[in-house]
Design a protein that fits this description.
153 residues, alpha/beta
């Protein structure tokens, strides 16, 4: 089964505090978004990856995309909000199935991607990949806070 991937990398630079788009933050000399991009490129079933990026970062992003990847990678500019960025990416989709991933989440595994794709083959039309909460979480309540059971999150 063939699918396209929309990889969202058009961050707004506001919350992380780096002064630049966090997907360009380098870990082991490689920008964050490249980890996810390469992971999806490992799948033959992945027909195309649509990078949704900021126009101002186009040249910088292009320098990291190897020529061997350009055949499978397409580009589109992001919108003012994430929903618009996803819509812009959807306009480039050519396959029946599409996976949408945040380029600032580099730890996705091949097993997780395969699990999502397998769920389509099992007949599911919409799938969301989630990870159980591991840290302690608290909720404000009546001027204090209480621990939320992780099993419920």
């Amino acid at each position: 089964m063939s699918y396209d991937v929309i990889l969202l990398i058009a961050g707004s630079r506001e919350r992380c505090g780096l002064g630049y788009n966090k997907v360009l933050y380098k870990i082991n000399g490689q920008p964050l978004f490249l980890y996810s991009l390469k992971k999806f490129l490992e799948f033959d079933e992945c027909h195309k990856i649509i990078l949704v990026l900021q126009e101002a970062e186009k040249d910088e992003i292009f320098q990291y995309i190897g020529k061997e990847y350009l055949e499978k990678v397409d580009f589109v500019y992001g919108g003012n909000i994430r929903q618009q960025s996803v819509l812009n990416g959807l306009e480039k989709v050519t396959e029946k199935y599409v996976l949408v991933h945040d380029g600032a989440r580099p730890c996705i595994t091949k097993e997780e991607i395969k699990k999502v794709v397998d769920s389509f083959e099992e007949g599911f039309e919409n799938v969301a990949l989630v990870t159980p909460v591991k840290e302690c979480t608290r909720i404000k309540k009546d001027g204090s806070s209480e621990v939320v059971e992780r099993e419920k999150l």
